[in-house]
Amino acid sequence: MAADSISDILLTGFADADRDELAAALGGLGRTVLSGDPINDPKTAFVVAAAYDETALRSMRAAALEDVRPWCFVVPAGDRHVVAAAAAAREGRVLLLPVELRELKRVLGALAEDARERSAGGAAFAGLRSMKASFAWKTRGLDVSRICRSLAHLLAECGYYSGPGAEDECTLALEEALVNAVEHGNLELDSSLRPDDPLKEDLYELEREKRLADPAFGDRLISVELSVEADQAALTIEDQGPGFDTSAVDDRPSTSDVSGKGFWLIKRPFDDARYNASGNRLTLTKHRPQP
């Protein structure tokens, strides 16, 4: 099932305001939405379930175990314990409240991929012990979400992430890292250009599109290297921007910056994350969990 063909998404467990907002966003993406519960509405293609606390999350995870459909758990971004529990869940994907459109599109694609995997069966890269690959894209032609989903899924199939929740957290971290490389690296967009006023958000996006169209910025390359050796995987992301002062990197969590460019979010699903001295190359490493 392709991402564009997703329909009949079941929303369950939501507060009215959150449900209405998410339903409107999904409708804007051309998705058909139902509101109900998994038992009485078993014919929908996907389940998107809200869990506002750990008790609700446990209940939703139990329901997901009994369901053949792909699930996504929607949890409040400000609750670290619930976010961590959802990311560790093997039964479903993760989406943070308040929901951002970019993240919603990413999760829709991931749910469609889950459906394809369930119908195909098997992991193509299970047990892989050694691999090296290099990729490079022009900034203007980079499909960030698709690339990050593919890389995270490959690492999951190799045994580095257990379950869709952990894979989803890896995808989110890679997206944050890659967007940083694009926007703050190759396009040299300063965070100060993004206003606090949401009504002025278009100014940032207009400048972003302007620089993407400028060969001086849009033709710069984003390079990704992936290696798997024995029980360690390493990913490097490099841009051709001027870099930044890496001493300013802060890996502490922030309740107000969960969906932003926080280094803590990039580092979270990896065992190590560090920039080179100039700040234009990020290396992420992950050890394969032992059974």
Structural notes for this entry:
There is one protein chain. The chain is an alpha/beta fold and 291 residues long. It has two domains: 3-120, Rossmann fold (3-Layer(aba) Sandwich), CATH 3.40.50.2300; 130-287, Heat Shock Protein 90, CATH 3.30.565.10. The chain has helices spanning 16-28, 54-65, 80-88, 101-120, 144-157, 164-186, 201-213, 215-218, 263-267, and strands spanning 9-12, 33-35, 46-50, 71-76, 92-97, 130-138, 221-229, 232-238, 272-275, 281-287. It has a five-stranded parallel sheet with strand order 2-1-3-4-5, with helices on both faces. Strands 6-7-8-10-9 form a five-stranded antiparallel sheet. Strand 1 (9-12), helix 1 (16-28) and strand 2 form a beta-alpha-beta unit. It starts with 8 loop residues before the first strand and ends with a strand.
Question: Could you write a compact summary of the structure shown?
Answer:
This protein is an alpha/beta fold and 291 residues long. Helix content is 39%, strand content 21%.
Provide tags for this entry.
291 residues; alpha/beta; Rossmann fold; Heat Shock Protein 90; five-stranded parallel sheet; five-stranded antiparallel sheet; 9 helices; 21% strand; globular; disordered N terminus
